[in-house]
Amino acid sequence: MKNKFVKAVAVIALGSAFMTSCKPKSSGDAVSGDAAQKAYVAPGKYDEFYNFVSGGFSGQLSVYGLPSGRLFRVIPVFSVDPEKGWGYSEETKPMLNTSQGFVPWDDLHHTEMSQTNGEVDGRWVFGNANNTPRIARIDLKTFKTAEIIELPNSGGNHSSPFITENTEYVVAGTRFSVPADYSNGDVAINTYKENFKGHISFVKVGKEGEMDLAFQIVTPGVNFDLSHAGKGKSHGWFFFSCYNTEQANTLLEVNASQKDKDFIMAVNWKKAEEYIKAGKGKKQSVKYAHNKWDEKTHTAKSEIKTEVLVLDSAELKDICYMIPCPKSPHGCDVDPSGEYIVGSGKLAALIPVFSFDKLQSAIAKKQFEGDYGGIPVVKYEAALHGEVKKPGLGPLHTEFDGKGNAYTTFFVSSEVVKWDIKSLKVLDRVPTYYSVGHLCIPGGDSKKPFGKYLIAYNKITKDRYLPTGPELAQSAQIYDISGDKMKMILDFPTIGEPHYAQAAPADLIRNNGQLKFYKIGENNHPYVTKGEKESKVVREGNKVHVYMTSIRSHFAPDNIEGIKLGDEVYFHVTNLEQDWDVPHGFAIKGADNGELLIMPGETTTLKWVPKKVGMYPMYCTDFCSALHQEMSGYVRVSPAGSNVPITYSVGTNLPATK
Amino acid sequence: MTSAKISLLSKVLLLLITALFIGSLFVPMWQIELNAPQYPEGLVLKLHANKIGGDVDIINGLNHYIGMATLHTENFIEFKILPYIIGGLGAISLLIIFIAKRKAVLFFFITYIAFVVLAGVDFYRWNYEYGHNLDPNAAIKVPGMAYQPPLLGYKQLLNFGAYSIPDTGGWMLTAAGLLLLTVVIKEYDLFKKKK
After folding, report:
1. Which residues of chain A are in CATH 2.130.10.10 domains?
2. The pTM is what?
3. What is the ipTM of this complex?
4. Domain limits of chain B?
C-alpha cells in the first residue's frame, strides 16, 4: 500500500516535471541579455525615432521616442483636453465643431505621416475620427492640430487617414454603411440592402497641407475596414479591405462572418479624376464642417460646407474592382515596391498576397467571376501572387522592413510573424503580450522603411505591469529587427488604446523648422495685447473683455473691479515672453471651463461667467519662474446693478493711507 | 636702416591693420556668455561697436529678479561714438602709409594702447554700475552680493556662470594691435639692439 502510494507520487512528480518542461517559456524569458542596452537612451541623449501613436479611445495622438519608449507629449486632436485648454478656450472650440454641433470626444485609430515620392517627409501627421467621421492634420512644426475636416455620407471613418505617395490625397472609408446624407435616412434598419450605401472619400491635400473633400465614390453597403495606397508602379490605385459583404444589420459577429471570402476593393483614383474632369460626378447636397487653425490669429475657424461630388462605382465600371479575400479582411497593406498587396482575413489561418501586375492583367483580360452590386469581381486566383501557409491564427496587419521581408501581427495566436514576400516562407516568429493589433516599423508602409525596430501595440495587458485595479494601461513591445531573428528589447505602457502608429527618423522632424515660440510681432489675434501698457478692461454691455498680459512673474492687470453678476468675462491672455519653454497658465476660481496654457507670443481666451458675488483669485498654473507662486491676482464680483466702476491695474492699487 | 621712412612691408601691414579696424565694425566686439541650469543652450550678450545684440531681451527679462537695470543700446553714448573712434583709428593707419614716418607709427601705437586702456576702464565702470546699482525692491536680495560681470574671464553670479571674452571684432582689434607692435619693433629695430 505504502509502496504503491510512493510510486504514484513519483509518477505524478515525474509527469508534472515533464509537463513543466514542455510548457512554453514564460514572457520573462523572451528577453535576451543585451536588451536593456539596445533600448537604453542615456540621460540627455535623444532617441533615434519619433513615434506617433494613435490614442484610440482617448481621441488624442501620443508622441513617444524609439527605442526608449519614453512619452514626450500627448497632442489633443479629437477630444477636449482641459489641461491644455483644447476645446475649452474660445479659440479652440471651433476645431471640434461638426455638422452635429460641438463634439467633445472621438476615437483616433490610425496615424499616417505625409510623404513625398513615397518617403516620409516629416511635415504632417494625419489622424482619423472613427465615431463622428473626420480627418485631422497635425502640423509637425508646432505639434498642434492644424485642421479637421468632417466626412459626409459616412458612419465611422475607419479605413483612414491613409495617403497617396505624394500626399495628393488622404482617404476615408465608411466603416458603417448608412443611407447617404442626400437621401432619406429615416428608413427601417432591416432595409440595409436597399437603402444603405458605402462612401469612400478622397480628400485633396494642398501644398500647405490644407484639406479639401475632392470627391466620394458610392458603393454597395459594406463595412470598409482599412486601406493603403499603391506606390511606385501601383501609384494611382488605392486598396480598401471590406467585410460584411453579407450586408447584415444585426448580430454581425455571426451574420457578417458567413461568407468564405469578402473583398479588397481596388480603386483606380486616376481614372476617377478623369471622370470628374469629364463631368461624371454628381453634386450632392450634404453638410459637413471644415475647421482650420490660423497660426497668426491663434484662432480656429469652422465653416459648414454643403456640397460634395459623388461618383457611382456601379455606373462607372472601371474605377472599382473587387478582389476576393478570405474571412473578413482587416489589414490591407502594400509592400515598398508597390507590387504586393497583403490582405489579412482576421478569422483566417493563411495570408493571401495579391500581385498588382496580375491584377492589371486580370482586369485587361476580364477574368471576372461576376459582379458585386455592379462592381466587377476579379477571380481570386487571377490576382493572387500566393498564400503564406500556416503563418498563425488571425492575421491583422503587415509592415515591411525594406529588405524583402513582411511582418504580420496575429491577434488570436498573439505573435508577430516574419515572412519573405517573394517566397512566402515563414522566417521567424515572436510572442507579443498580449493579442497584438497594429504594428509599426519606422517608414514601414512607405517606399523607404527603416527596418531597425518593430513595435507591437497590444490589446490585452493583464500581468505586464504593476496592477492598477480593473482598468489597466495598454502595453506595447519594441523588437530589434536588424538581425535575422526578432528580439524583444523593451515593453512599455501607452495612453488610451494604441491602434496604428507611424515613426520617422528624429532628425527629419527636429530639423524641419520646428517652432520654439510665436513671434509677438506676428500675433494678429483680434484681442492681442502687445505690451503691458496696452492691457485694459473693456465693457460692452454685459460682456467684459480683459486684455491681459503675462510675463514672469505677474499678470497685467492683476486687480480688476467692476465685474457684476450676469457678466460674461473674456480673459484674452497674451504671453509676452519671447523665449523657448516659458509658457504661462491661467486659471480663475469657479471657471466651469478648463484652464489656459499660453505659449510664448500666443493669445488665448477663457470665458468666465461668475455665479456668486465675491472675490475671485486667479493665478498662473504653469510653474514659470522662481516667483511663480506670486503670479496671481484678484477679480471682484459685485451684485447685478452695482455701481462699482470698472477699474484695473497692476502694482498701483495700494492701501489708502490715513 | 635708421631711415625715418618706413619699409614697404610695414606699409602692407598698416593696410592690413586698416582692414582689421574697419572690418571689426561689422561683427560683434565682445561677448558675455551666460550659463545656468535652466539655460543649457546658454544665453549670450553680444557687444557690437554700435549696439547690444544677442539674447538681450531675454537677459533683460531675467534682470528684474535681482533688480538690475535693463540694457538698452540708446542708454550708452559709447555705441554712438565707438564706430567713429574705431573708424578713425583705421583711417589713421591708412594715413600713416602716406606719411610713412616711423614716429607716426609709434604715436599710433601709443594711441591704440590708450584706446584699449580707456575702453577697458569704461567697460569696467559700466559692469560695476550695472552689477552694484540694484533696485532695493528687487525680489532676490543676497546680502553682500553684487552682479558685476568679469572684465575678462569667468565669474559665477548666483545660478549664472558669466564668461566675458572678446568676440570676432575684439580678436580683430587684438590682431591689429599685435601687427602694429610688429611694425613698431621692425621700424625701431628693437630686437636688433638687444643683440
Report:
1. 47-510
2. 0.90
3. 0.78
4. 8-185
